Structures are given as structure tokens and as C-alpha cells.
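Readers of this paper often ask what the protein records in our data store actually look like. The remainder of this section carries one protein's record, kept here as part of the documentation.

:::
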Amino acid sequence: MNSDTQTPISPANSFSSTDSWDGVEKRTDQNRRQYNLLSLWKAFSAPRRFEGRRREDRRFATLDRYDSGLCTLAILLVLLSITDSVFTLTLIARGGTEANPFMNYMLQQGIGVFMIVKMLLTAIPAVVLVATHNLVLFKRIRARSILAAMVGMYTGLIVYEIGLLIISSS
């Protein structure tokens, strides 16, 4: 289709004979869908779909409704982060140190600052990964897989911290 002129559409693509369409395509852009923060907000505030209707929508679809497994991963990630924070503070009270230099700096600012920053650094990526769970990164990895990997890594960290707590209590 020539975008400089208005080209008539074939009868196979037109409306029924009772509609009042003149047969001339007036849209200048064939793909009118836009993904932005407003569409992400609408997806959370008024959910409607589980998957994109068109093949190209499934490539980067910030969907309106999410399956329970995906939400479970996100909630589990945040709960593991809270557990990590509590275990970290317990280990520090027993003489340990925070290994992460950034979080160590936040801890020096205060326990409240440490907890807020810790939760934000976990919750924001969890929300983004849930919203973009079908997005394929590096032509190989879905965002959902990254969320699952983060849960796995946090689980490993919790097991390690439990070991440290057992050692520090004896």
C-alpha cells in the first residue's frame, strides 16, 4: 500500500454492504498499538487478557492478566528477599558483615533505609518481569525464566544463610 495516497482496499477486507465505509484506507500507520507506562498501568488496574491476540503481540505483550504460577514466583521472590533481610540483620547482630558494598552502605544509613532499598530492588524487577514475562531477551531467554532463576538463586542464598546462622549460634 502506498502511504502517500489513499488506496482503495479490496472487497475481501472491507466491511459488509450495510456499513457506511467508502472503501478508502485512511490510517497512515498500520500498527497503531503502543506499549508505554500508561498501557502497563491499565494492565494492572483493569485486567482483560491472558495473551496477545496477534502473533506480533505475543513477542512483547504486557498482558492484563497473569497465570497463578507467574504471580507465585513474584510473591515468592519478595518473600525470599524479606527472609534474606531478616537473616542478614541477624547475622550482623551476631558479628557478621554485609558482603554487598552497596547494601552495606545502605545499612550504615539505617535499618529502615536498608529494608526499603532492599524491597524496592526486589519488588520493582519482580513487577517488570511479571509484566514482560513473554519478552524474549538475547533471542533465547524469556523474562519469566529470569524470574524463576532469581527465585532459585535467592533460595540458594537462604540455604547458605541458614548454614551461617547454625554455625554462628554454636
Observations:
- Residues 66-169 form one domain.
- The helical segments are 37-45, 55-59, 68-93, 101-109, 111-131, 143-169.
